[in-house]
Each structure stands twice: as C-alpha cells, then as structure tokens.
C-alpha cells in the first residue's frame, strides 16, 4: 500500500501532545531533551505544563515539530514508513525530516528561528489573516485582486481559503467576500500576515540559517507548499523553504498531487484532525488515519494488515 505521511501546521498544538509517547518510551524522553538543547526552550515544560507560550509562534513551531516527530518515530519503529510526505506550512519541516532531508534537531532549531522571524518582521497590528468558507478560490481571487495589500495565504481544501496581508486591506476584503456569497468570513487570531509578501524579509533572513543547515538527499519525495510539486532533488529545498514564508500554501493542490502519485492511505501525524478534514473535502476516495496517541499506532497496523 502506498502511504503518505502528512503533518499539520500551526493551530493544531495543544498542551499534553505526545505525553503518552513520552510516558511509554524512553527514546521519546531523549527526543524531548534533544529538542530542548536544539531550541534553547524547556520543551518538557512547554509541552506538558499549562502555559501561554504554547500559542506564541516562536514556541508553537518547535513544540509541534517535537511532538509530531516523536509520533513519527513510534510509527517507523513499527516498520510503517512513507512513500511520500507533505506538511501544511510549518508541517513541511516535519515532512522533510520524515523524508530524510533534514535532521530532527535541525528542524526544531530552524522552526524556532522561523517562528521568531515570522512574528517580528511586521509590527504588531499591521498585518492579519482571515478564513473564508464556502467560496471558490477563483471568486476570492477576483474579489481581492484590486485590493492592494491583500493576497491568498492558504488553499486548504475546496471551500476553505485563507487570505492575508495588511490589516486594512484584509478588513476591506472581508465584507466584500461575504457579499460575494461566502458562508463564513472569520478574522484569525494571528501575530502577523503569514504567507504574504509582507513576510519576504523573514524568508530572506531565514535563508542564512538554511544555508548553515545540512540538507541531505531525499530518501522519499515530498510535496512542497509553494508550488505543490513532488520534490525529488534536495538541492532546491533551501529555495523552497525561503519562498514558503511569503508564498501561499497550496495544500489542496498538494493533496491532489498525492492522489495522482497513487497514494492509497494518508497518515495524519500530529494533534487534531485538521488534515483529515481537508483530505475528506479534497480527495475523499483516499482514507486518512490520524495518529496522535500511542493507541492510534494499532489502528494504522490494523488498516495495513486488514
């Protein structure tokens, strides 16, 4: 069976994620320690004790990578490995670790830097994002094309798009999108205009850290966010990750690429079931199983042996 590993982005995080893995496996405790060393954050405290930092971008990103990669190791230790990987925004870093292009430690270290750059590049209040439910991307694109400073951020699935940009531009677009027939237009609680051209300096600043990071040959291909292409050549990865910070996330298109590649099962690795929801609306013919607890590993084994 052809398997894809898929990883969620920011917003999926929660206190206690991966706790049962850490309780069950000594190597998971070691991975927490490695993440603390790589990020300079007390990862055990961040993941398992009530705190505000878990929802602050600079902390959220390395925390999610830590939790998702612990869950991934539990799967691969059982002999369950991917034929293709992908991840939504931040999740692309997990996909790269699972594909063998980047080490776990480097992904944790880079995502802390990435989170900090994404939060601090645009002054607070100057940029924002909004989710649009129930409108096609072509309609949204036509509504916002004449609004300077408002662009597409995420093509999540049919009928769910996120826009981004200057606060006044996004606020101008929201009522127009409601008038155009959107079922729901929701301002997002975010610390900046993620995936907008306003974040280009963040990507440019991230590049020097990417250049210092070793990128290995891909063991399995992955689908990149900014072009929804199947990547087999690791020499383009730094360019893609630099561009990804300020480019729209083409997740719906990425899922379709997985389907075209003959994927028969998608394993969503991480807290929540955001990816599963997007899969069901985009490629409903492909089953998806979420792995966020030790118990879920048995469900995957059952599905594969069934």
SSE arrangement:
Blueprint (H helix, E strand, L loop, with lengths): L2 E5 L11 H6 L1 H14 L3 H6 L8 H20 L7 E4 L3 H8 L5 H17 L6 E7 L3 H8 L5 E8 L2 E7 H13 L4 E4 L12 H12 L10 E2 L6 E2 L5 H8 L6 H10 L4 E5 L4 H9 L5 E4 L2 H12 L1
Parallel strand pairs: 1-2, 1-9, 2-7, 9-10
Antiparallel strand pairs: 3-5, 3-6, 4-5, 7-8
Uncertain ranges:
none
Order of helices and strands: EHHHHEHHEHEEHEHEEHHEHEH
Biggest sheet, open or closed, and with what strands and sense?
6 strands, mixed
Overall geometry comes to globular
Question: Structural class of the secondary elements?
Answer: alpha/beta
Radius of gyration: 18 Å
Read across the widest sheet, the strand sequence of neighbours is: 8-7-2-1-9-10
End-to-end CA span: 11 Å
What is the CATH superfamily label of the largest domain? Malonyl-Coenzyme A Acyl Carrier Protein, domain 2
Tally the helices: what do you get?
Answer: 13
Number of strands: 10
Helix content: 40-55%
On the 0-100 scale, what is the average pLDDT? Answer: 97
Structural descriptors:
single chain; 306 residues; alpha/beta; Malonyl-Coenzyme A Acyl Carrier Protein, domain 2; Alpha-Beta Plaits; 2 domains; 6-stranded mixed β-sheet; 4-stranded antiparallel β-sheet; 13 helices; 47% helix
């Amino acid at each position: 069976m052809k398997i894809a590993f898929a990883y969620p982005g920011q917003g999926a995080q929660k206190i206690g994620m991966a706790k049962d893995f850490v309780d069950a496996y000594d190597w998971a405790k070691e991975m927490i320690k490695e993440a603390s060393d790589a990020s300079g954050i007390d990862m055990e405290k961040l993941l398992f004790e009530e705190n505000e930092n878990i929802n602050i971008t600079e902390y959220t990103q390395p925390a999610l990578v830590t939790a998702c990669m612990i869950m991934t190791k539990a799967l691969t230790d059982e002999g369950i490995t991917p034929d293709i990987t992908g991840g939504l925004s931040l999740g692309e870093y997990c996909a790269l670790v699972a594909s063998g292009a980047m080490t776990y430690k480097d992904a944790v270290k880079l995502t802390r830097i990435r989170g900090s750059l994404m939060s601090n590049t645009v002054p607070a209040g100057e940029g924002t994002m909004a989710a649009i439910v129930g409108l096609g991307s072509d309609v949204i694109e036509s509504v916002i094309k004449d609004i300077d400073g408002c662009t597409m951020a995420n093509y999540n699935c049919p009928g769910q798009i996120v826009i981004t940009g200057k606060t006044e531009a996004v606020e101008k677009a929201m009522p127009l999108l409601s008038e155009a027939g959107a079922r729901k237009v929701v301002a997002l609680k975010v610390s900046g205009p993620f995936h907008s051209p306003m974040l280009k300096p963040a990507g440019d600043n991230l590049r020097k850290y990417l250049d210092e990071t070793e990128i290995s040959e891909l063991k399995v291909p992955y689908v990149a966010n900014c072009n929804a292409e199947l990547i087999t050549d690791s020499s383009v990865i730094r360019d893609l990750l630099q561009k990804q910070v300020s480019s729209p996330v083409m997740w719906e298109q990425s899922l379709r690429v997985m389907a075209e590649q003959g994927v028969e099962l998608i394993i969503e690795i991480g807290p929540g079931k955001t990816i599963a929801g997007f899969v069901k609306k985009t490629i409903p013919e492909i089953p998806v199983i979420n792995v966020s607890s030790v118990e879920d590993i048995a469900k995957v084994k059952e599905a594969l042996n069934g």
